[in-house]
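Service request form, structural biology core

Requester: graduate student, group of Dr. S.
Request type: structure prediction, single chain
Budget code: on file
Notes: please return the result as structure tokens.

Sequence provided:
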Amino acid sequence: MVDIRREHTFDAPIAKVWEMFRDPASHVAKFEAMGHTDIEILEEERSDSRLRIVIGRTVTVDLPGFAKKVLKPTNTVVSTDEWSDRGDGTYGGHFSAETKGAPIKVHGTTLVEADGDDRTHYVVTTTIEVKVPLIGGKLADFSKGILDKQMDDEFRLGDEWLNSH
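Core staff response, request fulfilled:
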């Protein structure tokens, strides 16, 4: 099991960041920009104070030799994101991602809080669990590298979304 904590500050007020995370189009645009394909919203529940969205997509990664025995380079990933207004001026929730047919589980929490009037602090904590004997640790480390790149992309794409909307 690998735990990761990543933080980012958006140069936008929290109300604008909340609108981004509550907008299903921002999630789809993010995955499109990351090169994912066959993106489909499978479930969506949205109100002024919450969002629950389940998105399926096809993801292709370059696998190292040791991982090719247990993983395929192209997989279907189904992610579930739940965001809500916490009632204290912050927003957050939890997420999970299931890679169909792979022994890897990803889940975590999100939190956004105001950083003054014009900036928003975003914290993502993620746990990666791999259920493979012998090479599970190596797979978890490999998955951490993919997740770190994805988080860098998510932060950058969030900044781009906020600047263009």
